[in-house]
Amino acid sequence: MNKFKAIVQETYVDQVKSKSFIILLLLPIILIALSGIVGFISYQNASSSGNDDTDKIALIADNGIKQSIVQKDGNSIDSSIKTEQQAKQKLKNDDIYGYVKVIKNNGKYTAKYIGNETIDSGVRDDVMQSLSLHQNQLNLSNSNLTSEQIKKLSNKPLFDIHVKKQSNDNKSDDNVIKMSSLQVLIYILYFFLFIYSSITASVISKEKGSKLIEIIFSSTTSTNYFIGKITGIVLMMLTQFAAYLIMFFGSYFFLSQADFSKDFISENSNYVHQIIDNLVNINLVFIIFGLLLGIILAATAGSLVSRREDANKAGQPVFMLVVILFVLSMIFQNNSNNIIPKILSYFPLSSYFFMPIRMINNQANIYEGLISLVILIAFIFGLTYFISKVYKGLMLQNNNGGWFHNLIKGVKYR
Q1: Could you tell me which of 308, 338, 289 has the C-alpha nearest to residue 204?
Q2: Full DSSP string of 249-312
Q3: Which residue range or ranges hold the ABC-2 type transporter transmembrane domain (predicted)?
Q4: Which residues make Cβ contacts (< 8 Å) with residue 311, sequence separation at least 6?
Q5: 53-153 belongs to which CATH class?
Q6: Tell me: the pLDDT tens digits for 264-275?
Q7: pTM of the model as a whole
Q8: Band (372; pLDDT cuts 50, 70, 90)
Q9: Where along the chain do the CATH 3.40.190 domains lie?
């Protein structure tokens, strides 16, 4: 047990302390920081532009109308201008781009705009909406109606809604969430499989044929060595995964509070929560065991190279498998009920890609998912047991006959 712990610790510590792991860990922080800086600068520029008087108009009206409009468009209206003479002077000096003068004549409100540029459509609509309300109040006061008659005029129609089928908008939202969940799932699997298959194959192949590996196998079993290496790399992957989760939730919390992004985050928080719900369930278990299988296959591939110098190409078989699964998952993500993804969703070398996709698309139920997961776990245990028993032969033979030939020779090694 102590030797097993030593192998795990040595593998984990060496990899976590490596420059490549530190760069990989810091890269998202750098990208998030750069995105935050760009967003903050953009927000500051927008705020500065919004506070520039040349982007404002003046409003000449009685206090009631002016107050109701300023409440809606305070950033677009220069409230310091009180008279038309001031507005004309400001317009002449290009301090404002125009002004609106509201006049009441013979029981009717009229808004007149004078400016060097066309008035903003949003401001114009708010002015007209406010004037319509004041015009209605003026009409009622001039009509000499009784309170009972005014009450009847204020009656509004009712609209009673009973929805029996999901609306197209809701279906569209669900499709957006599903597609986003699929994209996140596929890229998580692809990213971690690609990175860790490379790391695992490189770690194993660098010890291939060295005197060190002979010393290790003279003091411990191939099973301890193989499973210890796998455990150390899995712990490294979990460390990176945990760090990314902390970064994600920390960034999400920061962006939800920051002035330049909180409105956007608030509007889309429901989508984010539903995407997370689609991942943090049985699909997360598929992701974990899929990554574990990829690491085991990469460790096997790393032991099949002929020399230590071949470490860079050790993970090629696993690379090809990951790329093929990635491409197929992208092709079938919208048609995952086809016969090909159905078969691949139960085949252990591909089920961790395709069964979660089918479940997100509601084309496979939880029981089908559990069956596929059991097959995957059983395959991983069986493969781990078999490889651990022949791993000494795989690591100690140095033939140049290729991966398949080396696998046969390693299995036959005694």
Answers
A1: 308
A2: HHHHHHHHHSTTTHHHHHHHHHHHHHHHHHHTTHHHHHHHHHHHHHHHHHHHHHHTSSSGGGGG
A3: 19-385
A4: 201, 202, 205, 206, 208, 302, 305
A5: alpha beta
A6: 777 777 777 887
A7: 0.63
A8: very high
A9: 53-153
